[in-house]
Amino acid sequence: GIELVGEPGEYQPKRVNALARDFGIRICSICGMHPGPNPDDLRALCHADANERQKAVDYVMRCIDLAKEVGARSVLVVPSLVGQPGFFASREKDTMMAVESIGRAGEYARKQQIYLTIEPINRYEVGLVNSIYEALDMAWRIENDFVKIMGDTFHMQIEEGDGIANAIRRAGGDWLYHLHAADNTREAPGRGTMDWKEILRALYDIEYTGVISLEPLPKGSSPYDARKGNIPAEKLDAELKFALGHLRQQQLRVLPYAGE
User: Fold this and answer.
1) 63: nearest Cα among 17, 127, 3, 141
2) Residues annotated as catalytic (active site), given as ranges
3) What are phi and psi of 212, to 5 degrees?
4) Average pLDDT for residues 221-226, to the nearest whole number?
5) Which helix (H) or strand (E) holds 65?
6) With a threshold of 0.90, does the pTM exceed it?
7) At what angle do helices 132-142 and 91-112 cross, to 10 degrees?
């Protein structure tokens, strides 16, 4: 399957569904983009201004609608703004605003039977929710069965002091709903030094049933290049093929131990 960039206005759902059917794939998730592509489109769920927060909630709701239309299971949300590692007011107040905003969006998600997954991002890129524990704490505060958390191995190797595998086990299968996979260099799994056998074994240990979504960036690229479509498709294809091959190889090494 594939994950769609969270820009609902750029898709024709009927066309997306037809292409997915033709190629035998499914749409797994919608990746919320915080902020949007335009300077005035912040999508800041933790903003101090109520009008800005409402705009962000409205955006998440549009992503939920898109997910529903294309058969995706979840929408990824970032409580603060990627690339802006500060606060609108303070950590405490921004957290309160994010909990309130995601809580309201979560009620709509529940009605649509779509999951919201809170993504922790490293401290150098965002102000709020850097670790798995902080994502769990926010989800616990919201108290909605349709608000879960996700992980991103690139960010986790920066923030999780006791390692990615232990963080996965700490989150557990009831809360971890989605996982972005990239190596420590942010390239494809297998290009760097991460122990993917150990990561996959941790997923087996918690009986993970969610999606592993590949998010590799070829050497010399940045996430901002990817968002602008500035990375040649053939480079991305090569990284994805390499990543799939490596993960399948590591999975075969894990399977004899699964369930121990």
Assistant:
1) 3
2) 119, 215
3) -105, 110
4) 66
5) helix 50-70
6) yes
7) 60
Q: Which domain holds residue 190?
A: 2-257
Give the residue among 163, 158, 150 at the shortest CA–CA distance from 185: 158
What residue type is 183 in one-letter code? D
How far is residue 29's CA from residue 5's CA, in Å, rounded to a whole number?
9
42: tokens are 């912040």
**Which tens digits make up the pLDDT trace of 19-32?**
999 999 999 999 99
Distance, in Å, from the CA atom of 47 to the CA atom of 82, rounded to the nearest integer, reads 13
Rounded CA-CA distance 222/227 in Å is: 9
Residue 84: pLDDT above 90?
Answer: yes
What is the spatial distance between Cα 201 and Cα 30, in angstroms, rounded to a whole number? Answer: 26
What is the distance between the alpha carbons of residues 145 and 231, in angstroms, rounded to a whole number?
37
CATH code, domain carrying 93: 3.20.20.150
Number of domains in the chain: 1
Q: pLDDT at position 259, please?
A: 56
3-state secondary structure of 131: coil
